[in-house]
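Q: What would this chain look like folded?
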Amino acid sequence: MELTEANFSENLNTKFSVSVADEQLEIELVEVKGYRSEHHEQQGMERFSIYFQGTPEFILPQGLYSMGHARMGSFEIFLVPIKSQETGIQYEAVFNYFREQEQ
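A: My prediction, written as structure tokens:
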């Protein structure tokens, strides 16, 4: 499955597994935020951020992680911890790439 804004939006509020060493941790997708291109910016881009909520017991350092999801399958994304709160750590992944052109 492609890592698009639409595909992540369809899986909002579901759990994703993250591989860390020999362990599997779960984090929940809590927000998908799309960015519209301005007229002066490069057109044909897919731009969005996704936000995950993790537990307060374990902080994933910024880095590339292997992830898995029941519907989306396995993939790797770069996660950045952005906020610490009592309920846990929030992480962000930013996507910015050219959409494939339909032929």
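The chain has a mean pLDDT of 89.
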